[in-house]
């Protein structure tokens, strides 16, 4: 031990420095080994490494190269899985990205999509323990907890009857903040003032819907309600609604028109949705008025209706309704019910909000990334007979050609031919291709290129609902779909859709290549690989995809289907149809992340 007492001048400083470094490296490696093997750090580092690898496809050149390889069938492995923390990822409603944006008019809660080159090219995995969803109609009342293990709503809202955890399930007693005893007594109360039965009302919009128990309860009345809410602090409320089999959509009323045509809904409902209807010169009330069919009903429950300390807000709300000539049907406790006039009986007249009619250059059904207008949509701006009470009752309205079909040349004839064509095609799907349509395995259906809604109309006797998507760059036929008593949205398929992963059982698209082309051009705006990766994100494991297109396009689609882990077959079209179409039928395989993820 004597060497420890050597004078400083006798030590070899270089030797000691080397020994220190070697010792430090040795102990550092031992510590790192233990951290990687015996703690979660190793898993998270591996995941972040994979994420970095996936994000490297954001390098445009590398990403484009991968897309080309997949399209040509030269990428022989499946596209990589996304990291485990992306199981609920919605690219356009990403809180990490959108939280940097302005809070003004809730801009930060609206859709804000990354550019395609900024998105990793990977497949969203299911969460650990994911099970094939509970089938309809049992799913209305219970779902698997492991499919979306988010307890926040159950913990916060369980006392209001929203949902509760029970064994391996979440159960839904049917309550809401304004109807903790269940939606049924609340709907019964509304039925005293509104014709909820008999087919007069068919399409409804439920704003700020929670887990959509109100919309779910209306289904038994023959009313098809589309429920929406933003991605917000009540984590995954729309995800719960869709898992239950209730029509729902992630959406925020902020700075833009909602993606629906004018006069779409027979009935609009807000139960404690907390939308400031009279703010910004009543801009939000005006948007609701654009969407509400003449003769339709508006119901608002909760603040500010006869609410403590909200006298001014309540007075303002009544003043806007008066300015628009809405008929006050009832104020029942904290619920107010108005009926919209059938025609333009009021405006323009003097009112404290400065409301004026929109000019003729404004197409009220143009609603894709369209800034909110502070003007009132006149009924004469939309051709046709569509007020509630004049439009045929449900189900007659499903097959009656609405005058809005004249948005297309020879629209009435086109409508009738389209209805016949899809009746024939759906029969072929069921009888010859043996698709699961009509079985309990299929509840949530999407038609990505809906036109007049003929595919959805042909499924009316099945226990399904259909999200009819009208591409935003195609003719604006969505008003026809609503006149038929069906529901849907505008969307551009070069962007991700506003839904959670694993929310549709069945996705249908006729003419998939047209979704990525510039209208009237052969030039593509985006690519089929990104579109099919997005379809995979929306589709449930073991879900079905049906794609119709030319043989050349179907061959390309089949190559991409292999890369997104679908099992696919190519089939001939029904013998009565003209043209060269082929039909690809694919099933999404139920794969899971390996432990290395």
SSE layout and pairing:
Layout: H1 13-38, H2 41-55, H3 60-72, H4 95-98, E1 142-144, H5 152-157, E2 164-166, E3 169-171, H6 183-190, E4 203-207, H7 213-218, E5 224-229, H8 237-243, E6 248-250, E7 265-271, H9 279-291, E8 292-301, H10 311-323, E9 327-332, E10 335-339, H11 396-399, H12 411-431, E11 444-447, H13 454-457, E12 465-471, H14 478-483, E13 488-491, E14 504-510, H15 528-538, E15 539-549, H16 551-563, E16 566-572, E17 582-588
What key phrases describe this protein's structure?
disordered N terminus; Put_SAM_MeTrfase; Rossmann fold; membrane; transferase; 7-stranded mixed sheet; 16 helices; alpha/beta; SAM-dependent_MTases_sf; EC 2.1.1.-; 2 domains; single chain; 17 strands; 597 residues; globular
Brief account:
This protein is 28% helix and 16% strand.
Structure description:
- This protein is of the alpha/beta class.
- The protein has 2 domains: 138-381, 3-Layer(aba) Sandwich (Rossmann fold), CATH 3.40.50.150; 396-588, Vaccinia Virus protein VP39 (Rossmann fold, 3-Layer(aba) Sandwich).
- It contains 16 helices and 17 strands.
- It has helices spanning 13-38, 41-55, 60-72, 95-98, 152-157, 183-190, 213-218, 237-243, 279-291, 311-323, 396-399, 411-431, 454-457, 478-483, 528-538, 551-563; strands spanning 142-144, 164-166, 169-171, 203-207, 224-229, 248-250, 265-271, 292-301, 327-332, 335-339, 444-447, 465-471, 488-491, 504-510, 539-549, 566-572, 582-588.
- The strands form 3 sheets. Strands 6-5-4-7-8-10-9 form a 7-stranded mixed sheet. The chain has a 7-stranded mixed sheet with strand order 13-12-11-14-15-17-16. A 3-stranded antiparallel sheet has the order 1-3-2, with no helix packed on it.
- Helix 9 links the parallel strand 7 and strand 8.
- The longest helix is centred in the N-terminal third of the chain and has 26 residues, at 13-38.
- The two termini are 51 Å apart.
- Residues 1-16 and 33-56 have low confidence and may be disordered.
- GO terms for molecular function: S-adenosylmethionine-dependent methyltransferase activity.
- One of its GO terms (cellular component) is trans-Golgi network.
- Its main location: membrane.
């Amino acid at each position: 031990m004597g060497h420890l007492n050597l004078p400083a001048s006798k030590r070899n400083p270089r030797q000691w420095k080397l020994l220190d470094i070697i010792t430090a490296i040795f102990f550092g490696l031992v510590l790192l080994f233990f951290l990687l093997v015996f703690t979660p750090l190793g898993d998270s580092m591996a995941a972040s490494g994979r994420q970095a690898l996936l994000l490297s496809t954001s390098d445009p050149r590398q990403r484009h190269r991968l897309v080309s390889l997949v399209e040509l069938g030269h990428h022989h492995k499946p596209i990589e899985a996304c990291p485990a923390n992306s199981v609920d990822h919605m690219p356009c409603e990403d809180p990490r990205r959108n939280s940097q944006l302005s809070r003004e008019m809730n801009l930060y809660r609206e859709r804000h999509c990354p550019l395609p080159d900024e998105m990793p090219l990977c497949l969203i995995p299911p969460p650990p323990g994911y099970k094939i969803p509970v089938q309809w109609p049992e799913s209305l009342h219970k779902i698997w907890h492991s499919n979306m293990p988010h307890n926040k709503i159950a913990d916060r809202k369980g006392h209001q009857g929203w949902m509760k955890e029970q064994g391996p399930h979440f159960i839904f007693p049917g309550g809401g903040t304004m109807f903790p005893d269940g939606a049924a007594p609340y709907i019964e109360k509304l039925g005293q003032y509104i014709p909820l039965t008999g087919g007069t009302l068919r399409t409804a919009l439920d704003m700020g819907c929670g887990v959509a128990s109100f919309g779910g309860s209306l289904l038994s009345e023959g009313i098809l309600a589309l429920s929406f809410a933003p991605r917000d602090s009540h984590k995954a409320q729309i995800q719960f609604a869709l898992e239950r089999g209730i029509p729902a959509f992630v959406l925020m009323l902020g700075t833009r028109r909602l993606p629906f045509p004018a006069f779409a809904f027979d009935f609009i409902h807000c139960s404690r949705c907390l939308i400031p209807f009279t703010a910004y010169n009543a801009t939000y009330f005006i948007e609701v008025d654009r969407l509400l069919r003449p003769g339709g009903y508006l119901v608002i429950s909760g603040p500010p209706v006869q609410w403590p300390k909200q006298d001014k807000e309540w007075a303002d709300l009544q003043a806007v309704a008066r300015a628009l000539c809405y008929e006050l049907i009832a104020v029942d406790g904290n619920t107010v019910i108005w009926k919209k006039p059938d025609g333009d009986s009021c405006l323009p007249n003097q009112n404290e909000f400065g409301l004026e009619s929109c000019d003729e250059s404004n197409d009220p059904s143009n609603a894709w990334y369209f800034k909110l207008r502070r003007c009132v949509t006149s009924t004469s701006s939309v051709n046709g007979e569509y007020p509630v009470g004049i439009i045929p009752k449900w189900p007659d309205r499903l097959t009656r050609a609405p005058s809005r079909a004249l948005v297309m040349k020879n629209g009435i004839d086109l409508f009738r031919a389209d209805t016949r064509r899809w009746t024939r095609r759906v029969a072929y799907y069921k009888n010859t291709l043996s698709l699961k349509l009509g079985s309990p395995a299929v509840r949530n259906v999407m038609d990505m290129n809906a036109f007049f809604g003929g595919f959805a109309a042909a499924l009316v006797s099945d226990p399904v609902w259909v999200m009819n998507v009208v591409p935003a760059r195609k003719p604006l036929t969505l008003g026809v779909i609503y006149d038929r008593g069906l529901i849907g949205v505008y969307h551009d398929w070069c962007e991700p859709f506003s839904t959670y992963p694993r929310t549709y059982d069945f996705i249908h698209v006729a003419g998939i290549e047209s979704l990525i082309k510039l209208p009237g051009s052969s030039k593509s705006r985006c690519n089929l690989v990104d579109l099919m990766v997005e379809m995979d994100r929306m589709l449930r494991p073991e879900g079905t995809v049906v794609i119709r297109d030319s043989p050349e396009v179907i061959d390309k689609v089949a190559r991409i289907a292999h890369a997104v882990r679908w099992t696919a077959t190519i089939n001939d079209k029904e013998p009565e149809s003209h043209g060269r179409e082929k039909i690809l039928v694919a099933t999404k395989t139920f794969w899971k992340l390996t432990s290395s993820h």
